[in-house]
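Slide 14.
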Amino acid sequence: MTEGGCPLLNTVIESDDNLPFLKVKAQKALNELLGSLENIIQNGIESKEFKEGIDAKKEAALMFSVIQGGLMMSKLSDNPKILNGLLETLKTNVTSQYLK
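Slide 15: predicted structure.
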């Protein structure tokens, strides 16, 4: 786990509605992150590594949300097993639902 938590999540929490310029930068970073993950999934579909019909945008958002939520829960509870368990679940889902 990253010491100090996730820079993007920290920025979002700190920017809230009081610092709109910071919120815009965080939105841009999130869009870039999700876009990169979406591209990875889409490339997997196009190269026939992943099944057709997967909604790359939806799956990218789901993966990111699970990881971010797992980071927050692990950090708050001082229990890295929470994040590790969620990562294992993501791995199982990718293996069983994405791969041909």
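Speaker note: Residues 71 and 83 are 6 Å apart (CA to CA).
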